Amino acid sequence: VPAEFLERYNARGASRAGLTAEAIEGLIAERNAARKARDFARADAIRKDLEARGVLIKDGPQGTTWQYQ
Asked: What does the alpha-carbon distance between residue 5 and residue 28 come to, in Å, rounded to a whole number?
């Protein structure tokens, strides 16, 4: 099943990035809260930190998703 494969792939990538999937989700929630509070500097810093660790985040109509690069 494609969704299960993607979840396993992201979990392996997250562990290589030194983060658990739960930690990535927590950082994304923190970033979303910063964006809502219009603290764009903090939101950008979180995005850049995740990208530096190889985690790509995508904002879309259904919310924010992530995948390991």
From this structure: 21
Residue reference for tokens 């494969």: 5
Residue 35 exposed, middle or buried by CB count within 10 Å (0-12, 13-18, 19+): middle
Q: Exposed, middle or buried by CB within 10 Å (0-12, 13-18, 19+), for 38?
A: exposed
- In this prediction the pTM is 0.74
Taking only the tens of pLDDT, the chain with its 69 residues reads 677 776 776 666 555 667 888 899 999 999 999 999 999 999 999 999 999 988 999 999 999 999 888
